[in-house]
Amino acid sequence: MTGLERAYDNINKLVEFCNSKETNTTFGENGKIIHLIKDTVGKATYIYGEYGFDKDFFVHLDKKFEVVAIAADNVVYIVDTYMFSDYEITRSGKELPDGVRWLGDYYNELNEKLTNEFFPRYYENLVPTGVDSYEDSRLEELARIELLGNGEPHKGQLDRDSKVTEYDIAKLLAGFENEQEIFAECVNRSAGIYNSRKSREVATARYIAEHDVVKDYELRIAEAIRNTEAKNVVVWFEKHNKQSSAKISPQNIQRVLIRKFDYFSTYVFMNGEEAKRMFFEIGATDRGWGENQNRLTTKDIVKIMYRGKAIYQREEA
Question: What is the rounded distance in angstroms from the CA atom of residue 12 to the CA atom of residue 24?
Answer without folding.
Answer: 15
